[in-house]
Amino acid sequence: MSNPASASRYFVPQPSHWPLVGSLALLLLATGAVLAMNSVAGGSLVLIGGFVVLAIMLFGWFGRVIGESESGSYNGQVDRSFRWAMSWFIFSEVMFFAAFFGALFYVRVLSVPDIASPDQALLWEGFKDQWPTAGPAAKDLFTPMHAWGIPAINTLLLLSSGVTITWAHWGLLANKRQQLIVGLAMTIVLGLVFISLQAYEYFEAYSHLNLKMTTGVYGSTFYMLTGFHGFHVTLGATMLIVILVRSMKGHFTAERHFAFEAVAWYWHFVDVVWLGLFIVVYWL
Amino acid sequence: MQATQHAAHTGNHDDESHGHHPTGLMRWVTTTNHKDIGSMYLWFSFIMFLVGGAMSLIIRGELLAPGLQYVSPEFYNQMLTLHALIMVFGAIMPAFVGFANWMIPMMIGAPDMAFARMNNWSFWLLPPAAILLVASMFVPGGAAGTGWTLYPPLSIQMGMGMDLTIFAVHILGMSSIMGSINIITTILNMRAPGMTLMKMPLFCWTWLVTGFLLIASMPILAGAVTMLLTDRHFGTSFFSAAGGGDPVLFQHIFWFFGHPEVYIIALPAFGVVSHVIPAFSRKHLFGYTSMVYAIAAIGLISFFVWAHHMYVTGIPLTGQLYFMYATMLIAIPTGVKVFNWITTMWRGSLSFETPMLFALGFLVLFTIGGLTGLVLAMTAVDIQLQDTYYVVAHFHYVMVAGALFSAYAGLYFWLPKWTGHMYHEGLGKLHFWSSMIFFNIAFFPQHFLGLAGMPRRIPDYAQQFADFNLISTVGAFGFGISQLLVLVVVFKAVKGGAKAESRPWDGAHGLEWTVPSPAPYHTFEEPPAFDPAEAHA
User: Fold this and answer.
1) Which residues are within 8 A (CB) of A187 and not within 5 positions of it... i.e. 6 or more apart?
2) Stretch(es) of chain A classified as CATH 1.20.120.80
3) Closest Cα partner for A7 from B371, B333, B528, B279?
4) Which of A136, A268, B247, B427 has its CA 20 to 30 A from that of B461?
5) Partner-chain contact B236 A213, CB within 8 Å
6) Minimum distance, in Å, between the CA of residue A240 and any CA atom of chain B
7) Which chain A residue has its CA at the smallest distance from B159's CA?
8) Which of B124, B189, B249 lies at the smallest CB-CB distance from A84?
9) Rounded Cα distance, A45 and A29, in Å
10) Touching B: A residues 211-240, CB under 8 Å
11) Which chain B residue is nearest to residue A37, measuring alpha carbons?
C-alpha cells in the first residue's frame, strides 16, 4: 500500500466459467478413478475424459491470467498477493510430504521395533527389528535401493538445476534474454534427465531387485515418497517449459516476472524435498 | 440476494469488465463477487445441514427404543458416518467460509477477495464433493460405515463407497486450501490504509489463524486418505502389521489433522461471538490484545495434542501424560476468551436481540462442552469414557452449541446488512428458545448415558439406557423441526420487512457498518479511510 498510484485502483477479474470447468474435471477424475480402481467398465474412459477437461481448463485459465498479466492489468498489490499465495501453496505441499515422511519415521522408529518386540513373539515369531523390511509376513526376498548409484547422480542433477535456474534468473534481471533462455533450457533438461533416471530406477527395482509397491512397508514408503516427489518434479518441469515458451515469446521484464519466480520457488521446493528423500529414504 | 444491486454496479475495477455480466444461472456459476460466493456458501451449507440433519434423525429414530426398529445395523453405520462428514465438511465449515467471504472484504475495506476467480472455484468444488458423498450411498456395499474417522482396518475392507468418500475428502481439502490461501492473502495484503493487524476486527484474526490451521492440516488428511487408497487398491502396507505397518499410524495421522480441525470450526465461531457480544453490550471488546494472543495460542497448541483421542491405543504412559497436560493447556487461552466475553458484558448496556441470545447460548453451552473436554482430557477418566455417549455429548456441545449457535448469531447479526431488511424478531427469538431448549433435551441426557457406560456407534442398546435415549430422541426431533424456522426468517428478510439502516445495531463497530444496507454489489472501489473509532481495540 506504499504506492498510492497502485493502491487507488483495485483489480477484480471478470466473471469466468473456468472454475466450473475445473470442478467438472475433478468430478470426472474422481468418478473415473473410483470406477477404474473397482474394475467397472468405462471407468478408464471417464478418467481420461477428466484429464482432457482438466487440460482444457488449465490452458484456458492460465492463458487468461497470462493475458491479463501481459496487458498490464496487475498492479503491485496483485503482485504481492501472488507472492503470499504461492508461499502458502508451497507450505501446503510441504505438509502433504510431511504426512508421508511422518509415516516413514513412525514405521522405522515405532511400528517395526514393536512388531519385533518380545510382546509380539507369539504373533510374529522370529521377526527381527531391521530396516529395510518387508514386514513379518513377507515371503520373497528383495534388494533395497542403494543411495550411491542413480540416487546420488540424481542429487547432483537436481542441485545443478538449482544453480542453472538461478543463473537464468540473473539473466532475466540483467536483461540478458539469451542467458535466461539457455539457463531455463538447461534446467528443464536436467529435470527431464532426473525423471528418466527415476523411471529407469523403478524399472530396475521391479525387474531385478524384486522391490515393489507390495514389498511391505519399505516398498510402500519408498514408492509413495519417491513417486509423489517424481510427480512434483514432472509438474515443475511442465511449469518450467511454460516459462521457457513465454520467455522465448518475450514475456517478463527485469522488474515484473513473478511467474518465473513462482516456478523457481517451486523448483527449489522439489529440490529440498529430494534432499530429505535422499537422506532418509535412500541413505540412512 | 443481490439481484437488485446488480444493475447499480459501476465497475471501476478491471479495464474490460464494464457492462456485461452474465445473468440468471450463469451469473452464479461464473461470479467473481465475494458477496455472491458468500451467499452460495451459506445456502450450500444450509442445504447440507438439512441433509445431515435428516440423517441424524434417522440415527435418533433408530435409538428411540432398545432393539432394532427401522434400519439395518449396516445402514445405521453409514448414516452416522455420512452425518458426521456432511455436518463437518459440508455444513459447518462452508458456513464460516461463507461468513468470511461476505464479511472480511467489508471489514478490512477491500473491494473483494484477493483471488476472486479462485474464490469461485473454492465454492464450486463443494457440489462435486457432495455428489460423491451422496452417491456413495447408492453403490454396491453402500456408503462408508466406519465413522467419520475412517479407521483401518475396517476402512480397508469397505466397498466402493469408501473410495468415493476418499476422493470427496480430497476435493473438499482442495477447496479448503484454496479458500484459506485466499482468505489469508486478502487479510495480509488488502487491508485499508491505517488498519494495522492489531486494529483488525477479531473475526479477521480468527480467520487468519484458521486459514493457517487449514493449510497446515488439510494436506495431512489428504496424505492419510491417500495411504488408505493405496492400501486398498495398490498393495501397500502402511496400515497392515503383516507388512510392517500399523493401523494406529492412521490414527496418528488422522488426528494430527483432526484436532486442529476442531479449532478450524471453533475459531471462526469465537470470532463471530467477539463481534456480537460487544455490539449488544454497547462496549468495546474487553482485552482485544489478549484475545488475539489467545487465538494464536489455541491455533498453535492444537497441533500438539492429537493423541488425546488415542489414550486406549496402547501409547506409552509418558505419552499419555504429555498429551493430557498439553490438552489441558488449551483451557488457559480458551478461558481467557470466555472471561473476556463475560467482562465485555460487565456493566454494559445489554439488550437481548436474537444475535445476542444465540451468542449467550453459545457462551453457556460451549463452556459446558469445554469443561467436559477437560474431563475427557484426563487419561484415567478417558479410559472409562472412551467411545461412550459422554464423548458424543461433549462434541455436540462444542459443534452444535458452539459452532452452530455462533453461526446463527452471525446470521441474525449480519442479515440486515446482507438483505437490507430487519428480520422478524419474534420468529428469531422463537428459533433461539426452541433451539436452546430442545438442544439440551437432546444432548444433556447423553452425558448420563455415557457415564452409565452406553457405547457410541451402536444401533441397539441395553434396557437400562431406554429412558434417557427416548428423551434424547424427542429433543433431537424438536431441535430438527425448530431449524426450519430459520428458513422462514431468511425468506421473510430477503422478500421484505422493516428497512435496515446502515448501522442497524447501535453498538456495532467496524467498516462494514459504514456502508449502506444492503451492502452495494461492489463495496469499496477505492481504499476507504479507516476511522480508528471503528476499530475493535
Assistant:
1) A161, A164, A165, A168, A240, A267
2) 75-283
3) B528
4) B247
5) yes
6) 22
7) A38
8) B189
9) 10
10) 212-214, 216-221, 223-224
11) B233
Non-local (6+) Cβ contacts of A101 within 8 A are A225, A276, A280
Contact B476/B56 with Cβ under 8 angstroms?
A: yes
Q: Give pLDDT tens digits for B342-394.
A: 999 999 999 999 999 999 999 999 999 999 999 999 999 999 999 999 999 99
User: What is the per-residue pLDDT for B531?
Assistant: 78
Choose between B278 and B20: higher pLDDT.
B278
Coil, strand or helix at B423 = coil
Q: How far is CA B437 from CA A18, A178, B11, B426, in A?
A: 46, 74, 48, 16
Contact criterion met (CB < 8 Å) for A15 and B182: no
Phi and psi at B455, nearest 5°, equal: -75, 155
The CATH number corresponding to A1-74 among 1.10.287.70, 1.10.238.10, 1.20.82.10, 1.20.1740.10 equals 1.10.287.70
Please tell me the distance in Å from A100's CA to the nearest CA on chain B: 7
Taking CA–CA distances from A85, the nearest residue in chain B reads B181
The reply to whether residue A13 touches residue B32, judged by beta carbons under 8 angstroms, is yes
Domain boundaries A75-283, corresponding CATH code? 1.20.120.80
CB-based contact B167 A213, cutoff 8 Å = no
| Residue of chain B with shortest Cα separation from A40 | B160
Tens of pLDDT, residue by residue over B268-302, are: 999 999 999 999 999 999 999 999 999 999 999 99
Q: For the purposes of burial, counting CB atoms within 10 Å of the CB of B4, is it exposed (0-12), middle (13-18) or buried (19 or more)?
A: exposed
Burial class (CB in 10 A: 0-12, 13-18, 19+), B187: buried
Q: Which residues of B touch A218 (CB under 8 A)?
A: 244
Tell me the average confidence (pLDDT) per consecutive run of 10 residues in chain A, 284 residues long: 46 91 98 96 96 97 94 90 97 98 96 92 89 90 93 97 98 96 98 98 96 95 97 98 96 94 98 97 94
pLDDT value at B1 more than 70: no
Instruction: Report CB contact under 8 Å: B32, A12.
Output: yes
- The CA distance from A4 to A8, in Å, is 6
Instruction: Read off the amino acid at residue B484.
Output: L
Residue B404 to residues A244, B337, B400, B435, Cα–Cα distance (Å): 50, 18, 5, 10
Phi, psi at residue B499, to the nearest 5°?
-65, 135
Q: Taking CB atoms and an 8 Å limit, are A95 and B181 in contact across chains?
A: no
CB A1 to CB B22 under 8 A?
no
| CB proximity A42 to B under 8 Å | no
Helices marked H in B22-151: 25-30, 34-62, 73-85, 93-108, 116-124, 126-135
* Min Cα–Cα distance to chain A from B523, Å: 12
Output the pTM of the full model: 0.94
**pLDDT at residue B311 greater than cutoff 70:** yes
Q: Domains along chain B?
A: 35-534 (1.20.210.10)
The CA-CA-CA angle for residues B249, B252, B255, to 5°, reads 145
Residue B20 above 70 pLDDT?
no
Residue type, B345: M
Type and span of the H or E element at A5 = helix A4-7
Would you name the residues of B annotated as active-site residues? Answer: 83, 112, 148, 175-176, 259, 261, 263, 274, 308-309, 334, 337, 456
Q: Compute the distance between CA of residue B390 and CA of residue B376 in angstroms, rounded to an integer.
A: 9
Distance CA A147, CA A95 (A): 25
Rounding to the nearest 10 degrees, give the CA dihedral for residues B519, B523, B527, B533: 10
How far does CA B338 lie from the centroid of its chain?
19
The 8 Å CB, 24+ separation contacts for B23-29 are B26/A15, B26/A17, B27/A15, B29/A17, B29/A20, B29/B124
